[in-house]
Design goal:
Length: 513
């Protein structure tokens, strides 16, 4: 199936449409005459690699950006969406991939920010809290309205973002990577909410790099590539191969474990490590866990949200303290060392939230890459710009970052290229062990393949690689060994011959259907 087999909606079925939309930024054409329909009471999934133009199109449909040329139609009438507030007033809301919450405010305050419920005497905080509780009940989350957002884990923050969009009672809801930080159980709840919304006539635009997951919920599929629509189809007529083929031009997987060499000595030894919950010290998020990883070995840690994956990796990197146990790097105890000392000794972490913890948004691509390696190009307190630029230019080539130059703003890069910058920054420190927490979060299938290729190349050169994921397919790609965590403990270990069913059963997870 190709672009010639476009589904034709019934008259009156289209509630929002882009007609021949072009968007240019200087000499760059981000959108090239896009025609895109949103159907009443249906889910339209928009697929495409990072940089394909998805976010630009959604910004135009939600009033954040204006098209260079072309028109937007709402209920068959041409409209000009002057701002996101204008779009929201017309019933169009968007849930952005990168969270836009105020961490120092409560859940309730975030949901009603800018549109507070008022009485003659001021804000009706009680009613806002009541409505927040109702929204959380619909999303099956036990989050108190008064909780500060900064005290929530990433998946819960994503739920708050979704709740804020639902609170507006929009008739068109754009969801940009809404499940990127959610557990499988939370995804099922979101899908139930989506089905309820569409049954009430709400139209959904759904953007996701979780391709199999998106196929479950969508009614129509649209593929965007290099700023142009390459294919559209009714969901019943397509499969995963169709999406990948139209996205990247070929059918490929995420790779396989590198072979042809023997593992070296133990690089990382985790001995009886426990990590407490800061909010409830009597609860162990990591419960007396032990694990050895050898040089050249790739170990995948899989588990549901709350299994302890992130807490384990962050404790190994020194970001959160150990309750008990030891972390040995090539036999040396680093348990009491600072983050900087562990990096200097060869233990590096690529964090889950690249925007908050992995990048400095005000710095360039090059400065982000070199930030963790300043000693490599400094002497007696003086920095060598030539040495820094040489190392940065080499790394940009090695990790295949697509950028206009090392002085380009980090925000100008796609999500996949930003993630490669974060990984490249840590590779620049010449680690012996690299830990990666959800390294493919929010990036497309092509970028995922490039990221996993980088890790496989590192392993072949003797790097010990440990990465966590909540996607079973990523366990079955490049990992030599798969460790399944459940409630802070290792529930099972498998070799590269494991099956999806074996891994999910060990984690206590049910397959989405």
């Amino acid at each position: 199936m190709n672009a010639a087999s476009v589904f034709e909606p019934a008259i009156g079925d289209v509630v929002l449409a882009a007609r021949d939309v072009v968007k240019t930024y200087g000499s760059t054409r981000a959108l090239k005459g896009v025609a895109f329909n949103v159907h009443r009471g249906k889910v339209t999934a928009l697929f495409g690699e990072n940089g394909a133009g998805k976010s630009t199109l959604m910004k135009i449909l939600s009033g954040v950006e204006s098209p260079t040329s072309g028109t937007i139609e709402l209920d068959g009438q041409v409209v000009r969406l002057r701002s996101s507030t204008d779009a929201r007033d017309r019933g169009i809301s968007i849930i952005h991939q990168e969270l836009s919450l105020a961490p120092n405010l409560s859940v309730s305050d975030n949901i009603f920010m800018g549109r507070e419920l008022r009485t003659p005497t001021g804000v009706n905080f009680a009613e806002q809290e009541r409505q927040t509780r109702a929204l959380m009940a619909d999303l099956e989350e036990q989050i108190e309205p008064g909780t500060l957002v900064e005290d929530l884990r990433l998946g819960q923050q994503q739920i708050v973002e979704i709740a804020r969009a639902l609170s507006v009672n929009s008739r068109i809801l754009i969801m940009d990577e809404p499940t990127s930080a959610l557990s499988a159980t939370e995804v099922e709840v979101l899908f139930k909410v989506i089905r309820d919304l569409t049954a009430r006539g709400v139209s959904i635009v759904y953007i996701s790099h979780h391709l199999e997951e998106a196929l479950i919920v969508t009614d129509y599929a649209v593929v965007l590539r290099d700023g142009a629509i390459t294919a559209t189809a009714d969901a019943k007529d397509i499969d995963l191969n169709w999406i990948v083929r139209n996205m990247v031009g070929e059918n490929f997987d995420l790779g396989s474990p590198p072979t042809g060499y023997a593992f070296g000595e133990v690089a990382l030894s985790v001995r009886d490590v426990s990590v407490s919950d800061p909010a409830n010290p009597s609860t162990l998020l990591v419960d007396h866990l032990s694990l050895d990883v050898r040089r050249g070995e790739i170990v995948c840690i899989y588990g549901l949200m709350g299994a302890g994956r992130t807490e384990l990796l962050e404790s190994l990197a020194g970001r959160i303290p150990l309750e008990s146990g030891q972390v040995l790097l090539e036999g040396n105890d680093v348990s009491r060392q600072s983050i900087a000392e562990r990096i200097a000794n060869g233990l590096a972490l690529v964090p889950e939230d690249r925007q908050r913890d992995g990048l400095v948004q005000t710095l360039s691509v090059g400065r982000n890459l070199s930030l963790s390696s300043i000693p490599a190009f400094s002497k007696f307190g003086w920095l060598s710009d030539a040495r820094e630029r040489s190392l940065v230019d080499r790394l940009i080539r090695d990790v295949h970052v697509k950028t206009a130059g090392d002085d380009a703003p980090i925000g100008s890069l796609s999500g996949g290229n930003q993630q490669k910058v974060v990984i490249g920054k840590m590779l620049m420190t010449n680690p012996k062990v690299i830990l990666l927490d959800e390294p493919s979060r929010g990036i497309d299938v092509g970028a995922k393949a490039e990221v996993f290729k980088l890790l496989a190349e590192g392993a072949r050169s003797g790097l010990a690689v440990v990465y966590s994921t909540s996607e079973v397919g990523e366990c079955l790609s490049i990992a030599h060994r798969i460790v399944v965590m459940r409630r802070g403990r290792i529930a099972a270990e498998f070799g590269s011959d494991a099956t999806k069913e074996m891994i999910m059963a060990a984690s206590g997870e049910a397959v989405l259907s």
